[in-house]
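2024-03-11 09:14:02 INFO worker-7 job=invfold-0412 stage=load source=structure_tokens
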């Protein structure tokens, strides 16, 4: 829908708010990416903000457990950081095969000190075999990815038939539904393959998280 049609439907004030919000989201995303929180530069910054997202991590762990149950499913965490989600899953899903994909050597070392296995890689270059993963998750990493369309294609490559990826991100910095659809299109994925929704979880009266689901 173009700006002229938006103006006719909602009025110039609403259009201005829509445009300002889009610019704000893009600005926050750019600052966050340059800050390096999810890169080799961001280990110290991550440690300072990670406690703020403990509730989301619990939500992700609960979701994984509900999906994989008590079976030896292969689960990967993309942008796993120091392994918070995977460490919890070692107790909650003890027979699952758990691997983190993480570009930061320091983060991988922190994860290893907790007994969490992580490999060097990124969403765009997953060091995994075709069709080898039952469930892929990512927490607060998506908006840092350099090439989301390539990452979508790469995730689809490693998923087994019937597998799924669940990408959890912060609402004020992640990609819009239109952007997600475009990434899916550019990755050669069908429109029904990728979905975006806002999580029900509330923090200080708002719903700050989104879930993007990618089906194999």
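2024-03-11 09:14:09 INFO worker-7 stage=emit residues=216
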């Amino acid at each position: 829908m173009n700006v002229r049609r938006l103006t006719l439907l909602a009025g110039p004030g609403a259009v201005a708010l829509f445009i300002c919000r889009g610019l704000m989201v893009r600005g926050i995303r750019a600052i966050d990416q340059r800050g390096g929180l999810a890169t080799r530069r961001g280990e110290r910054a991550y440690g300072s903000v990670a406690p703020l997202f403990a509730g989301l991590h619990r939500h992700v762990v609960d979701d994984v457990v509900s999906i994989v149950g008590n079976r030896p499913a292969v689960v990967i965490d993309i942008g796993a950081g120091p392994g918070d989600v995977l460490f919890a899953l070692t107790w909650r899903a003890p027979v699952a095969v758990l691997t983190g994909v993480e570009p930061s050597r320091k983060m991988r070392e922190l994860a290893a000190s907790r007994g969490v296995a992580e490999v060097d890689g990124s969403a765009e270059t997953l060091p995994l075999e075709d069709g080898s993963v039952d469930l892929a998750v990512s927490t607060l990493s998506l908006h840092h990815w350099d090439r989301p369309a390539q990452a979508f294609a790469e995730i689809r490559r490693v998923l087994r038939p019937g597998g799924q990826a669940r990408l959890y991100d912060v609402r004020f910095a992640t990609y819009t539904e239109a952007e997600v659809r475009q990434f899916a299109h550019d990755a050669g994925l069908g429109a029904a393959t990728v979905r975006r929704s806002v999580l029900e979880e509330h923090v200080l009266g708002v719903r700050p998280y989104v879930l993007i689901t990618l089906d194999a």
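2024-03-11 09:14:09 INFO worker-7 stage=report msg="Residues 5 and 11 are 9 Å apart (CA to CA)."
2024-03-11 09:14:10 INFO worker-7 job finished
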